[in-house]
Specification:
The protein is an all-alpha fold. The chain has a domain of 34 residues. It is 62% helix and 0% strand. The chain has two helices and no strands.
């Protein structure tokens, strides 16, 4: 999903090349995992809002 959204523009600007594809893939996977983890944490009862300080 991230790849499909970002790669075409980067390729057309000649910023993303075959030399960069693997690193870009790793970045896309990391971003997807970050988003999933953020949703999991924000949607769970694991975090309890405390008082200031």
């Amino acid at each position: 999903m991230i790849w499909e959204r970002l790669a075409p523009g980067l390729i057309s600007c000649k910023v993303l090349t075959a030399w960069d594809a693997e690193a870009f893939l790793i970045m896309c996977e990391a971003l997807a995992r970050y988003r999933a983890a953020t949703q999991l944490v924000n949607g769970s009862a694991l975090l309890v809002q405390g008082g200031p300080g």
